[in-house]
Amino acid sequence: MKLKITQPQFKNLNKIGLFILLGVLIVLLYPSEDKFKYQFEIGKPWSYELITASFDFPIYKSDQQIAKEKEEILKNYTPYFKLDTTVYDHQLNKLFADLQKKGEASPRIPDYIKNKFKSIYSSGIISVEEYNKLLVDKKENISCILPNRITHVIPIKNVYTPRTAYEEIINNAPVSLKSYDMNMYLSENMKYDSTTSEISKTDMLKNLSLTSGMIQAGERIIDRGEIVTPANYQVLHSFKIESEKRKTSLQQSSIVVIGEIVMILGLITLLFLYIYLFRPRIYESLNNVVFILLVILLLVSLTAFTIRYTSLSVYMVPFALLPIIIRVFFDSRTALFAHIITMLIISFMVDNAFQFVLLQVTIGMVAVSSLKDMSQRSQLAQSALYIFLSYVLMFLAFEFISEGDVNRINWQYIIYFAISSVFLLFAYVLIYIFEKLFNLISSVTLVELTNINSDLMIQFSELAPGTFQHSMQVSNLATDAAKRINANSLLVRTGALYHDIGKLKHPEFFIENQMGGKNPLIDIPFEEASKIIINHVPDGIEIAQKNHLPEQIINFIATHHGCGKTKYFYNSYINANPGIKPNEDVFTYPGPLPNNKETAILMMADAVEARSRSLSEYTEESIDEMVEEMIGTQISDGEFKDAPITFRDVELVKAVFKEKIKNIYHNRIKYPEVRKQGSVEGIY
After folding, report:
1. Are 363 and 320 in contact (CB under 8 A)?
2. How far apart are CA 498 and CA 478, in angstroms?
3. Which residues contact 414 (CB under 8 A, 6 or more apart)?
4. Is 80 left (phi over 0), alpha (psi -120 to 50) or beta?
5. Coil, helix or strand for 193?
6. Which DSSP helix (H) or strand (E) runs through 57?
């Protein structure tokens, strides 16, 4: 049986795949678990929870201790030198040969020279470099290896260099022998034996112990708030060494990775379920899903990079960027939920996870609360200030509880919080970039678009003043209705201002711009007149695209008439041509239908405001009847079948429209005229 996957199922699989991909990437970004998760320093307080040994481990000596003990042991170490006995005979024969060359018929070496040569070469001659090195190392003796491998110890003071050997001969020589040049017959006969020396040194150090005791499993190591002394520093250092050794085993590494995968995918699944179940409007858009996951991935990546490759504090990372950016484009709950999930994931990377989560959840709440409706740049600076103050207050409160001593507080963290808060000011740039990359729209952009002093709005008010006033009235109606049903009121306000922008192309064809003059559509066939009216929708889309309006605003232009008919010309055609079936397409707007609450509200507001201008009388009954009739007709025509709006929402919208229109067209007091003097009726 062939498995068939429908288009919606395929889209769901793509989105599920994106969440899984995010989980896999985060697992790869996690710092290696071989790293010890605690940081400590002598003289600083222990800022983590109580630590007890989970296994037996030795206490390793410090490098200074080991170096000192090595030095003590090697005091008795003597380097080994090999004595070459052939050098004496060779140099003596060389001296004899040179004397013979000088013309002495029966050359004879004086007994003094022979005896001195024998004494010096027996003690040994070493190079100046080796001799100086022995003096630097403060060696008093060396071990001399004879050709028969017999070794004996010689005091350094009895060993010669070529220079001291020459001085020994010349200084004590008879006057008759001082003319002999002995330098060329004195050379080193003792060479350093590195192999034997290293073996001897190793043998002496092999009994050196690298540890100084044991810690038993379950034994207390250090508790929160205690000062790290040199003694417990060495215990902690030993615990770190043994922990990292144990984590390098394949089996334990695999278990750690499995735990990371389960934990991360579990948290990612919670995020997926939240968006899928409670934010279907976000879930339906692949762009929205990719955007949220990308922001999370960027923040986790920045944290992982900071931990892995720098020595900077993780608190310098601007974690509040995530809730700020998501809140600007979506809603507070989504921003806070995504922030909490992300902070829980990151908490397994950092030290003192409880403190980290407490601080980050707090600043996430502050960020979301302070940016309920971001409409000005200054709000971002205010939010950064509130976040910094919240960081400081919560950190100090936590430290007061855990430390109980002001002197133990690490005040450097406040600098980290300040740096993190300053980085939040770059959110404005990121918001602009994400708007362009993911076709999103922020409150700041909407506020800028509602500026009626912009070039497009000024042109609109000058060329189509009636339509402009209509748009303003529709904007007011729609905004109040959106607020009543918790829709995006700022988006509705902006969309309403631009929904009839297409009438700029031919403003004279629309009755609100004709100033009581003749309507040029009267003399045009109904089909052509209908086409002219319908064309203000595609014309509006064209003008909006030319002026680079966001897609969300263009959506209002395209859907504000849905698939409704130009009722005036449609009905007129039927009345003028009884029995002839009209071409429905000629009198029908191309659509699409409203696809969200905001576009549905605009459609209702547009129809009600336009119809309200044609009422013959303005009474509570006539206004109520008009609102019910217009919106009821739209519902019966199926105009809202693609919009997620409930009957309760519609009833609330009707109530707002009735109230607003009654306020607009309320009865006014008739001002009395001043009666003339002598009037029969007298003065009131």
Report:
1. yes
2. 13
3. 392, 395
4. beta
5. coil
6. strand 57-60
d(CA 117, CA 641): 119
- Residue 538 and residue 536: Cα distance in Å, rounded? 6
- Of 314, 324, 316, 321, the C-alpha closest to 346 is 314
Domain span(s) for CATH 1.10.3210 in the chain: 443-664
Could you give the residue ranges of the DSSP H alpha helices within 310-404? Answer: 321-329, 332-347, 353-370, 377-403
Instruction: Name the helix (H) or strand (E) containing 432.
Output: helix 427-438
Task: With cut-offs at 50, 70 and 90, classify the pLDDT of residue 680.
Answer: very low
Phi, psi (5° rounding) for residue 57? -155, 150
Distance of CA 428 to the CA centre of its chain: 15
Q: Is the peptide bond before 592 cis (omega within 30 degrees of 0)?
A: yes
Q: Which of 110, 117, 113, 115 is nearest to 160 (CA)?
A: 117
Q: Which residues pair with 576 in a beta bridge?
A: none
Quote the longest CA-to-CA distance of the chain: 180
pLDDT of residue 88: 87
The single-letter code of the amino acid at 134 is L
What CATH number matches the domain at 443-664, 1.10.3210, 1.20.120, 3.40.630, 3.30.465? 1.10.3210
Extract the tokens encoding 335.
Answer: 């921003």
SS (H, E, C) 529-541: HHHHHHCHHHHHH
8 A C-beta contact, residue 60 and residue 232: no
Residue among 292, 257, 287, 294 nearest 272 (CA): 292
d(CA 254, CA 251): 5
> Rounded to an integer, what distance in angstroms lies between the CA atom of residue 376 and that of residue 448?
9
Highest mean pLDDT: which range of 90-94, 606-610, 662-666: 606-610
Separation of first and last alpha carbons in the chain: 95
Rounded to the nearest 10 degrees, how much is the dihedral formed by the CA atoms of 255, 259, 261, 263? 180
Q: What phi, psi does 51 have (nearest 5°)?
A: -110, 125
Q: What pLDDT shows up at residue 365?
A: 96
CA pair distance 329, 313, nearest whole angstrom:
30
Where does 499-619 have alpha helices with state H? Answer: 526-534, 536-546, 551-559, 567-576, 597-612
Instruction: For residue 478, give both structure tokens.
Output: 């729609």
Quote the CA–CA distance of 358 and 394 in Å, as a whole number: 8
DSSP for 462-505? Answer: HH-HHHHHHHHHHHHHHHHHHHHTT--HHHHHHHHHHTTGGGGS
Residues 510 and 469: their CA atoms lie apart, in Å, by 13
For the stretch 73-108, pLDDT in tens is 888 889 999 999 888 888 888 888 877 776 554 456
Q: List Cβ neighbours of 164 (8 Å cut-off, separation of 6 or more).
A: none
Question: Which is it for the CA torsion 588, 594, 598, 600, positive or negative?
Answer: positive
Output the six-digit token pair for 11. 């889209």
Q: What is the mean pLDDT of residues 167-174?
A: 80
Sign of CA dihedral 460, 465, 467, 471: positive
Q: With 0-12 CB in 10 A as exposed, 13-18 as middle and 19+ as buried, what is 152?
A: exposed
What are the Cα distances from residue 473, in Å, to 312, 468, 555, 615? 55, 9, 20, 16
